[in-house]
Design brief:
Elements: H1 14-22, H2 25-51, H3 55-62, E1 74-78, H4 87-92, E2 100-109, E3 113-114, H5 118-127, E4 131-137, H6 144-154, E5 165-167, H7 176-194, E6 199-203, H8 204-210, E7 221-224, E8 239-246, E9 255-260, H9 264-270
Parallel strand pairs: 1-2, 2-4, 4-5, 5-6, 6-7, 7-8
Antiparallel strand pairs: 1-9, 2-3, 8-9
Helix pairs in contact: 6-7
Length: 281
């Protein structure tokens, strides 16, 4: 029996149908809506991952610093980078309508460096009635014992001064354990000499990563943490350096601004007492 060939209708390819739909009125609406959704997703991810993490930093760099709320005791820290300071103007300067109550002065660095403006700044701070302190910038390339002696030889602390400060910010070529050992050597030598526990200054992340062992928790903490509205640190702390872009009368250029975590009564209790037994030599 002869077979009959059946002709099949050729189906239009899906791509042809899709093209026809997209060229229609409804299709144009879908394309417009899809483009709008893509743009919205782009804006969202750009803000979430590019803009948002740096909003506070950009604000801190390109606008006046926002002062932390809830603190009534303000101060600064200075070095030769601030140049020659007009101390009479600084005496009358205010940080958010609050006078400058305390000042930390850079004294030494490494085994033999002395800040060229240290003695002038240290004396002037006392003359202007400010509570003063002195700090040492730690070097990873010099023995801790020699660095401690450098500080002790240059800094004659008196009752009413703040405890000595170790400023430590870099690892250098040391391992974390080597860094901790050297820092503790400096802290213990200086504590024996002045009769008070030194203050430890460092950045938030640096302390969390390298100096968060139990040995360092016995030392008062001066935390450096910029471009945040509030300080979220679980442990106790005494001072917070919240910006490096402060402006004050009497100082040309920028200066670091700090707050004290307590009242004026607390601060005066924290300074070196008459009974500390500070060595005059």
């Amino acid at each position: 029996m002869a077979t009959r060939k059946i002709k099949r209708r050729r189906r239009r390819k899906p791509s042809f149908r899709l093209k026809a739909f997209l060229n229609s009125r409804n299709g144009m609406f879908v394309k417009w809506l899809g483009g709008l959704l893509c743009a919205a997703l782009y804006v969202y991810f750009f803000y979430a991952f590019i803009v948002s993490p740096y909003t506070l930093r950009w604000r801190g760099i390109y606008s006046d610093p926002v002062l932390p709320s809830g603190y009534s005791i303000m101060g600064i820290d200075i070095s030769h980078h601030q140049g020659m300071i007009d101390w009479e103007k600084l005496h009358d300067a205010e940080i958010g309508q609050v006078p400058v109550s305390f000042v930390f002065v850079k004294a030494t660095e490494g085994r033999e460096t002395v800040d060229p403006n240290f003695m002038t700044n240290f004396v002037k701070a006392r003359e202007q009635g400010m509570i003063r302190g002195a700090y040492h910038f730690f070097s990873t390339k010099a023995p801790a014992e020699e660095q401690a002696q450098n500080f002790i030889q240059q800094v004659k602390l008196e009752p009413g001064d703040l405890p000595p400060v170790l400023d430590i910010e870099h690892m250098g070529d040391l391992t974390p354990e080597q860094l901790r050992q050297r820092a503790l050597v400096w802290l213990r030598i200086v504590e024996r000499h002045y009769g008070v526990k030194p203050i430890l200054y460092t950045y938030y992340k640096f302390k969390q990563q390298y100096l968060n062992t139990k040995e360092f928790r016995r030392y008062p903490y001066w935390i450096a943490h910029y471009y945040v509205d509030t300080l979220r640190y679980d442990g106790p702390w005494k001072f917070w350096q919240h910006t490096d872009r402060g402006r004050l009368d009497g100082i040309k250029g920028y200066v670091d601004l700090n707050v004290y975590n307590g009242s004026m009564y607390d601060l005066k209790q924290f300074v070196i007492p008459d009974t500390a037994g500070v060595s005059p030599f």
